[in-house]
Design a protein that fits this description.
By secondary structure, the protein is of the alpha+beta class. It has six helices and eight strands. The longest helix is centred in the first third of the chain and has 22 residues.
Length: about 210
Amino acid sequence: MKTNNNQKNKWYTKTIGVIALLLIFPPVGLFFMWRHSRWNKAVKWILTIFYALIVFSSMSSLSTPENQQKSSKGNVTPIVSKKPVAKQKIVVSSMIVKKVAPETYRYFFNIENQESKDFNGEVYIQLYNGHEEPGFLIFGGATKSFADSPVRAGANSVSYIDDSHEPFEVSGIDGAMTFSYRVSVGDDNVASGKGNISGEYEDYLQY
């Protein structure tokens, strides 16, 4: 009997205590409401359904597509778009071909810097023969770096590549007839083009 009396005297078994728990922590409040209060069952069911609806509506709002989208956006790492590569006016043209050894032909090219700033990148030049079908046969190419000797703004520089293939003037379409070039600064390609191999030819071995 003393145990029951002590339990009845606990604050959470009193009406004011149950109401306080319902406001502060509803799940515990609902438990003590059903366990200790003498309220009408209809009131108990109304309160229970009321809190159940609150919980259900809260869960539904969290699972809506809009909230899920907002949550996913918050976890996505933004992608930083790469800055567009600025093109440069670097023009390559063929000047002359010279035979400098029994199986070595030196192809000279003019590297023209039409920019208002110095050029210190690289120029890759590739040779092609005159066959069109099934496709141009590619001869050896070479890369010229201007890192140590930049081409001044508005100026030009002469460069060359050595190749064992004869030019068009010697072998016709079997020889080197056209070329392509690619200009790069660091990892960026800033210019490209193509042209014909010059018809100027000298054989140094004849002198």
